[in-house]
Amino acid sequence: MKIIVIGSGFSGAAAARTLADAGHDVVILEGRDRIGGRTHTDSSLGPDLDLGGSWIHGQHGNPLTPLAKAAGATWKWTDFKNVLGNSVMAFDTDGTQLDTAEYSQGIGNYDGAMAMIDGSILIDELGDEVQSMADLYETGLIKQSADEPHATQKGHLYTRKIRFQYENAASLEDSAVNISGYVKLPGGDNLLCGGGYRQVLLHLLGGLEVQTNTAVQEIRNEPDGVRVITNQGQFVADRCIVTVPLGVLQSGNIKFAPELPAAKQDAIQRIGMGNYEKIALKFPKIFWPTEPHRLNYMSDHEPPLYNAWLNFGHFTGDPVLVCYHGGPMAEYTNQMDDEDLISGCVETLKKMFGDDIPDPISYVRTRWSADEFSQGSYSYNKVGQHEEDRIELGRPVDDRLYFAGEATHPHFFGTVHGAYESGIRAAREILD
Ligand SMILES: Cc1cc2nc3c(=O)[nH]c(=O)nc-3n(C[C@H](O)[C@H](O)[C@H](O)COP(=O)(O)OP(=O)(O)OC[C@H]3O[C@@H](n4cnc5c(N)ncnc54)[C@H](O)[C@@H]3O)c2cc1C
């Protein structure tokens, strides 16, 4: 059978690999001039640095773990929650360093309250008026005591206001209180170092050819097969797997003839597509402590800015820091030009480490939400979304058109392993 796979991210690569291994004739069409989609290992600063997905979230039971091992990839555990006691270095708004133990207690208090709510019947008893994470905070269930030490209050506030929004890639108002939808695998957050996700993807593709610079404009489901219209001409096959991001489907940039079923179109519009952006700065030397994995800054800007830093140098020895913004913070920084963004980063680092720090010698920033081939970072559960929407999104049409991609995964959405598993699921639907 001849099969077209649209997209060379982890879902497309997994689908193509599975089908090619089963003896089918597979063509991968990719709109960009590179492979990988929302995994993009960039080496322009020197070290291999992932500008999209960069962690294996939960290495136990994760299908990426054996794949990454087979690819010869290495990874390092990142301690986001200061389990080790010295992995998170936190700074107040004026740049004063906050007491690490007290701050970590605040992180723990927040996470404990969330785990309690998530694991209890409370979530079902909240009532219809509690739809968003912002509504949940209004209930007062996640308490923050004024008697706690200052640093503990900051740790709690940071986790609730900043970390949640950048991890979920969405505002508290848009994020549904459906915290049980996502399944977190055990085994921590593991940063791929040296080769990055590119190394794993190349191993997965294993020589399969990808036709890059081939942007799909229309997908026609015809009586004798599927016709895919691209900027490089037409391609015809017996089956087609569509793995383009949710944001691309929401934009309507790809036409479907006949139109997709109404239920699928509704699901596409209801699921949330989030924003999450990175700025990586390379300095002449490491001027910050090498021990912490993370540097947390408590911004009083609205939305908060320059709050979350990965000490890349801790993992690789390179003089590189990576700053993250998600949700409303990412939307705000996406309006900023490079000069303002970089000077904002440097001013914040000066508050934390003093005026004598050197200027960055190079940088790289992402604009996933403005990129026509992603139109966002990854999906999240949005207020108003229906429980079945992700299943509906992934449902085949006429046993001819198949759908994969992170947003179709009911439990591992927003991740590389979710994308990978969805590709295998779609391939198996064809094989079955
Ligand atoms: C900044 C950022 C950080 C992240 N961090 C992590 C992390 O640490 N760990 C983790 O597990 N996940 C992370 N994720 C999420 C993870 O990267 C994605 O869930 C995953 O890579 C999505 O894979 P996919 O195959 O579903 O989609 P994609 O990788 O987006 O693949 C879809 C492909 O379709 C192509 N395409 C789109 N439109 C067209 C068209 N018209 N014609 C032809 N081709 C087209 C795209 O170019 C792309 O290659 C992160 C994502 C971002 C953006």
Short account of what is shown:
By secondary structure, this protein is an alpha/beta fold. 33% of the residues lie in helices and 21% in strands. The protein has 14 helices and 22 strands.
Number of strands: 22
Q: Which regions have little confidence, pLDDT < 50, spanning 5+ residues?
A: none
DSSP summary: helix tally: 14
How are strands sequenced across the largest beta sheet? 7-17-18-19-16-20
Largest sheet: 6 strands, mixed
Mean pLDDT: 94
Number of domains: 2
Distance between the termini: 13 Å
Small-molecule binders here are: flavin-adenine dinucleotide
CATH topology of the largest domain: Polyamine Oxidase, Chain A, domain 2
Structural description of this entry:
The protein is of the alpha/beta class. It folds into 2 domains: 2-39 and 197-273 and 383-431, 3-Layer(bba) Sandwich (FAD/NAD(P)-binding domain); 78-187 and 275-370, Polyamine Oxidase, Chain A, domain 2 (Alpha-Beta Complex). The chain has helices at 10-21, 64-70, 100-118, 122-125, 133-138, 150-168, 196-205, 246-251, 262-270, 312-316, 328-333, 338-353, 389-394, 416-431, and strands spanning 2-6, 25-29, 41-42, 49-50, 55-57, 74-78, 88-91, 189-193, 210-211, 216-222, 225-230, 233-237, 239-242, 255-257, 272-273, 276-282, 294-297, 308-311, 320-326, 362-365, 379-380, 401-403. The strands form 6 sheets. A 6-stranded mixed beta sheet has the order 7-17-18-19-16-20. Strands 9-2-1-13-22 form a 5-stranded parallel beta sheet, covered by helices on one side. A 4-stranded mixed beta sheet has the order 12-11-10-14, with no helix packed on it. Strand 1 (2-6), helix 1 (10-21) and strand 2 (25-29) form a beta-alpha-beta unit. Helix 1 (10-21) packs parallel to helix 14 (416-431) and helix 3 (100-118) crosses helix 6 (150-168). Flavin-adenine dinucleotide (FAD) binds next to helix 1, strand 5, strand 16 and helix 14.
